[in-house]
Fold each of these.
Amino acid sequence: MSEPSTAHPLRQAFGRLGPLLGLAAIWSLFAVLLGDSFWGWDNQRLMLLQTAIVGTAAVGATVVIISAGIDLSVGSAIALGTVVIALCLGAGLPEVIAGAAGVLACAAVGAWIGAAITGRIAQVGGVTLGAALAWATAVPLGVPLALTLGAGVAAAGFLLLPRFIGSVELSPFIVTLAMWGALRGLAKGLGDNQPVYVDGHPAMLDLMRNGDEGLSAIAAPGVYVLAALAVAFAWMLRNTRFGRHVFAIGSNEQTARLCGVQVERTKLWIYALASATAGLAAILQFAYLGMGDPTTAEGYELKVIAAVVIGGASLTGGEGSILGTLVGAFIMTVVDNGCTKLGLENWVQEIVTGAIILVAVAIDRVRHRRG
Amino acid sequence: MRGVSKRFGATVALSNVDLEVRPGEVHALLGENGAGKSTLMKILSGALAPDSGTLELDGERYSPSSPLDGRRAGVAMIYQELSIAPHLSVAENVLLGVEPTRGLRVLWGPLRDRARDALARVGRADIDLDQPAGRLTIADQQLVEIARSIALGARVVVLDEPTSSLAQEDVERLFRLIGELRDRGTSVVYISHFLEEVRAVTDRYTVLRDGESVGAGVTAEATPEELVAQMVGREVAELYPRSPRQPGAPALVLDRFGGRAHPDAVDLQLHRGEVVGLAGLVGAGRTELLRAIFGLDPVVRGDVRMAHVTGPSSPGNRWRQGVGMVSEDRKREGLALGLSIADNLTLARQRTLLSPRALAAESQPWIEKLGVRCRDAEQTIGSLSGGNQQKVAIARLLHADVDVLLLDEPTRGIDVGSRAEIYRVIDELARAGRAILLVSSYLPELLGTCDRIAVMCRGRLGPARPVADVDEHSILLEATGAREATA
C-alpha cells in the first residue's frame, strides 16, 4: 500500500518531451514533402520570425494558465500597445520611451485585471472613472483642471466605492472577456478609428527584419527578445518563490492560501507580468507592421492559448512550461508555413491547426491517465 | 493551551463548550456527526470566530483571524480531505508558504534539507523529495502534511479522522508518530469515531453532544460503554427503529460482478424487504460497486440481475427498471443545488410536458411524508440544511417508485435529528417490501439499521452476515484486511 505509484521513467520522459517530439514529427513530415524550400535556414528564420509575436505573448500567458487563470485580452492589449507606441513616437518621444510606454500601458492593464479578479473591482473602477473623466474634460476645461478633477474623482472613488460595493471576486474569464472588448475600443479611440502612421524609419522596425550580417543575419532581433524573455520566465517559474507560488495556486488554491501564500498579491503580479509580455509582443507587432493599428492582432488571444495548451499546460492549472509553450507556438507556425508551401489553402491550415490542438490535448490526457 | 469555551448565536452549534488540551498530550475529541466537533475545530483553527468565549494558547490570549493566522500561532489542522498541492514536489509541499529565499531566489538546497529533516521526523526520510506530491499514496500525503506542521514548528496539531482511509500498517505507523510528537511536547487533538483507536493512542478525552461538552477525563479510566453512552446520550434505543421484517424474493442479484478497477468479482443477493449494509474503509470500492450496479461506471465482468432484468445498463434504464441511487456527494452529484426542491425531487421521473406548479404539487406529499422543513416546494434546495437536502434526495427515489434503493452514505454530515428521521424512512421502506443496499462508514448506523452486513476490503466483498453475528470489532478486522473473510 505504501508503494508510491510512479510512472515508468521512459514514459515520464516521453511525457515531458511530448510536444517536442510532436514538433519534430511535423517538421520532418514537411521537410520530406517539401525538401530544402522548407528546411533551408532562410525558411527557418522566417518561421522563427513568424513565431516571435505570438510566442512572446504566450510566455506570459503560460504563467496565467499555470495559475489556473485565463487571459482573453491579449490580442486587444497588443493592438492597444502598438497604438500607444505609435502615438508616443508621433509626439517626438525617443524610441526607448515609446517602447517602454507600450509595455507599461499593457502592464497597467494587467494590474487592473489582476485587481478586478482579486475582488478590488470597486477600487479600480473608481480610478478608471477618474481617468475617463480627465480625458473627457481635457478639451473644455483645459489639461490642468481636467487632471485635478480626474485625480480627485479617482481618489474619492478608490476610497469610497469599496465601502458601498465591498469585495467582489470576478472570474478571470469574465474580467478578461470585458477587457477583450474594452481595450480594443480604447485602442480605436486613441487612434481615432484608424491606423497611426509614423514618419521616417525608426530603428525599432529592425526588430522584425532579418539582417545581412552578424547575429541578426541568423535570426531577427525580435527572436532574441523572445529567447531572452523565455529564459527569464522559465528561470522565474523554477527558481523564485513567486514562480513556485504560481504553481501552488494553480494546483490547489485553498492549500496555497492555508499555507500562507499571498494569493491575491501573487495573482495581481501574474496578470501584470502576463500583460507586460503582451506589451513586449506589441513592440514586435509594431515593428512588423511599421505602424500602430487598433484592429491588429485580432484572435491572437486564442492563438496564444492554443500555443500554451499544445505545449502541455492544463487549463485547470498546476501544469505547464515555457519550453512547451515555445514548442507549441512553433508547431503552429510550422503548420502554417508548411501548408502554404504545399499550396494548400488557408482553410486547410485552419482545420489542421484545430486538429493539432485536439490531438495534443488528447495525448496529454492519455498520458495523465493512471490506474 | 487551556480554557477554550465559546457559544454560537441562534443556531446554537456550540453552547458553552470547554476544551482543555495540555502540552504534550494526545487529546481525543469525541462525538457523533453533527455534535459540533468540526465547528469547534474551525474556531480553534481560526476559520470561524466564536460568538462568545475565549481561547488561550500557552497562557496567552489567542484569537486567530484566519487559518493562516492560526498556523502562524502554532495550530496546524490536518483534515480528513488532505490539503496537498498535487503538482508541486514533496519538498515544496512541506515548506509551502515558508520557502527559504535569498532576495527573489528560492534556495533549493536549504529547502530540500529542511524538508528532508521534517520528513525524517515523521519517519519517512526515504520519500523522494522531487516527485509530485499527487503521486504519493494517501498515507504518505498525510505524512507530508504532518511534516509540514513540524517544519512550521506547530505546538498544537489537530488530526481529523486521520485513519479513515489508511491501511492497518499505516495506522500503526501513524500511532507511533503521534506518540513521538507527544514525547517532544507537541499537543495533539485527535478526532475519531473509532473508540479502539481513541483508547490506543489518546491520553485524555472530551465528549461533545449536540453542541455541548458532556464529559471529559482520562481515556484509560473510561470504558468504551461509558464513552458511547456519553456520545449518544439516552436516545440510543430509539435512534435506530427496527420493525419486524420479512425478506421476500431476490430483488438484486450480483454474480461475479466486477468493474474496471473496483469492485472485484462480487457475489451478493439482496431481497425485498431487507436492508443490507456495506461496510469498509474509504476507498475499499463500495461507492464504485453502487455506481457500477447503477450503470454509472462500466461493468467489465460478471452479471447483475434485478428482478426480471439482467445485464449492464445505463442510469436512465435503471430508473425505469425500478432502481434508484442516492449519491455520497450530495453537493456535487446528488442534487442540483441551484434548482428548486420540486425540480430536484421529480428529476428522475418527469413527463415530457410539465409545469412548475404540477411539479410542486407532485412534490408536496413527499415533502410532508419525509418531514422536509422548507417554505414550499419552489424553494431553492441549496438554502436547506444538509439533513433536509438529503431527505429530498431520498424522496426522489420514492417519487420514482423504485424497488431497489442504493444509498451511499445517506447520513454523512447531517444532524442527529435528521439522521433519526432517515433511519425511520429506511425502516418503513424495508417493511413495505423495498430492498435497500446501504453504504456507510459509520458502524453503529450499519449495526442499527441493517439486517445483514457485508464487508468490502480492497474491492472484494465478503459474505453478507446476519447483523446478530457481527460487531464493530469483527467488521473493522475484516475491513482492514487484518482478518481474511471466511464464509
Note: Chain A has one domain: 19-119+169-365.
Amino acid sequence: MNILEIDRLSKTFGDFVAVDQVSLSIGEGEIFGFLGANGAGKSTTIHMIASLLRISKGEIRLLGKDITKHANFAKKNIGIVPQEIAIYEDMTAYENVRFFAGLYGIRGSELKERTLEALEFVGLGDKHAVYPKHFSGGMKRRLNIACAIAHRPKLLIMDEPTVGIDPQSRNHILNSVKKLNEMGCTILYTSHYMEEVEEICTRIAIIDHGKIIAQGTKKELKAIVTDQKNIWIEVRSTENADPGKLREIAGVKQVEIEDRVIKFTSDAGVNNLNKMIQQLMADEIEIRSVEEQEPNLESVFLTLTGRSLRD
Amino acid sequence: MRDTLWLIRKTLISTFKTYKNWLFYLGLPLLAILLAIMTRGHSEDVRVNIGIVNEDGKQAITLDTIAFIGGMHSTNLVELPKEEADEQIIAGDLDAALIFPAGFSQTVKSGNPESVRIVSVKGTEASDYVKANLNRYIDNMTLISKAAGGSESKFDRLYAEYKASDFPLSAETLQDRSAGHAQAYQSIGYLAVLMLFAAGNLSGILLKERENRTYRRIMASPVSARSYVSSNIIVNLAVIVAQVALTLGVMTQIFGVKPGLPLGVAFFLLCLYALVAVSLSLAVAAFAKSSMEAGALQQMLFFPTSLLAGCMFPIAAMPQAMQSIAYFLPQYWLLEAFGKLQLGVALAEVIPSVLILVSFAIFFSLTAVYKFGRNQDARSFI
C-alpha cells in the first residue's frame, strides 16, 4: 500500500514554476530518497507535503486522503526534520521534545514516556536536562530529529538531516533512520551525500528544474548508465595532464581531474583503456593504479542532469 | 483551544524562566513608582514659586492684585524682569510667572481687563491654583467697574469700600492630595512607556520563532495559525494586565499613593491602553522583517512618542508645535483621561478619550492584520 501519493503536483511563485507536474508514490515501509541540486524543487515539494506551503495544482494523498481536505489528519501522521535546526535554545532537550510532541495533542504520562523514548532513540537520553547551547552541531541535529519523531509519525520527512556534522553523529543518524524504518516508519529522505542515499534508500527520485527526471530502485537508476563506464587512473602527479588531449581519445565523453586521480567517463562499448594509458605515458605521467568504477548515483545524476549534485 | 493553551503555557514558562524577564516585566514598573515618588515630591509644604513681571508700574490695582497673590496660601512671590523670569522658569526655580501688561489697571477700570499672561513649564498643576484665584479677584474688580458705569471716581469709591469690607471667613484645613495625585500621574506615565516595551518584547517572540524556524515546526503540527497568533496575543495581554494590577496595587497599598480616581476606573483605562500597546506591537512585528528591525522600530517609535505625549514630563514644557503632535499619540489620551478624572470630572467627560483609545487599538490591529496578510513570509500566521 502507498503511504504517500503525489499526483501532478505544481507550485508557482508568480511566473516562476518551482515544482512542475511532479508525480510519485511512496510505499509503506520504504526509505525513499529524493535527490536534486539546490533550487531543483525538493524543499518546495517537501513543504507542500508538510502543509507548510499551499499547493498551486495537483494533489497529495496521505494514506489515501487528500491532505488539503484532511490537513489535520495529514499533519498528525507526518513528522518533519527540517534542514535548518529548529529548536529552542532556551529550553532543555527534554522541554523541546515535550513541547513539540504536545502540539500533537499528547499529554500526561504518555507525553513524558514518548519524550524520553525519542531522546533515548537519538542517543540524548542522558542529556535530557541540558540546554542545546551546550550541544555540538551533531547533537543539535539529533535533537532536531527527536522533536520530529516523538509523536510517532507514519511518514517522516528528513530534509538534509546530516548537513555539517561529524562522522560519528552522521553514523548515529543513519543508523537511527534504519532503525526507525525497521520500526515501521516510512521515510522520505533528501541529502546532498550520494553515498548516504545509496546506503539507506530503497527507492529514489531525481528532481531537476522542478520536474522528476527519473525514479526507481538503485538498480533501475544505475541501469540508465550501463552504456557508460567510469575509469579512474591514479597518477603520481597530474601536472602534465592535458584534459583536452585526453578527451580526444575515442569513446571518452568526459574527463575530470581530482587530486591525483584522472576520472574518465567513456562509452562502455569502446575498448580504449590502452589509449588512455598510452596518452598518459606520452605525457610522462607516472601511473600508480587503474580502476574501473561501478556506476553509482553520482554518475547517474551527472548523466541525467549534466552536473554534479553539489554544483 | 487545547493547542492555544499549550502554546500559552510554553510562552509563559520560557518567558518567566529568566530573572531578567521578571525584572523587565514586573520589576521595572515598581522602580517607576519609586522614581515617580522621588521626582514628584511629597505632600508636606508644597509651595508654588511665582515670578511677577510688572509692566504696568506702580498702578494701585496692579499692586493690589500682586499683593493678593502674595497673600495666597502656599505661594512664594518674587518680582523680576521678563528675561530673568524666563530663565528661572526654564531652570525650574519658578513654577510659573505672571506678566501684568502695561495698562492693565486702566483696562480693569474700564471693565474690559486685559489678560494677565501665565507662563509655566510645569503644566496646569502649577498654574491652575494661581489662575483660579487670580480670575476670581479680577472678576470682582470687573464687576465693580461695571457697577461704576464707566465713572472713575465711582470706581475708586466702590473699590475702596471693597478693600475695606470685612468678610466672615471660616477656615478648615484639608489634606493636600496634589502631590499624591502628581506621583500617581507620573507613575502612570512611566507605566505607559513600560507597557509599550513589554508588548513589543512579547510580540517579538513571533519574529524570533520565525528566525529560529520553530514556527515552521509549529505550523507543520495540527496547530492552526490563528491559535498560534492568538496564544501570543493572550500572553501579551495577560502579562501587561498583570503589570498594571501590580503597579496599581503596589502604588496604592504599599506606597500609599492615592491615584485620585477610583482604582477600578484606573484599571479599566490602563487595560484599554494595554489593548493599544499590544495591537501597536503587533503592527510593528508585521512591518519588521527581523527581530532586530522590530527592536529598532520600537526604539524609534515608543520612546520619542512617549516623550511627546507627556509620559516623562509635562507636555507644557515643550514648544506649542510639539505639543500639537501629542493629540496623535495614544499615550496622551490615556494621561488626558487620567488627569481629568483626578480633577474630579464626571466619567462621561472622559468618554471622548476612551473612544480615541479604542480607535487607536482598532487602527493598529487592522494595520497588523493587513500587513501580515500582504507579507509573503508571514502569510501563514493569519
Note: The interface with chain B takes residues 50-52, 71-72, 75-76, 78, 80, 82, 84-91, 99-100, 102-105, 147-148 of chain A (CB under 8 Å).
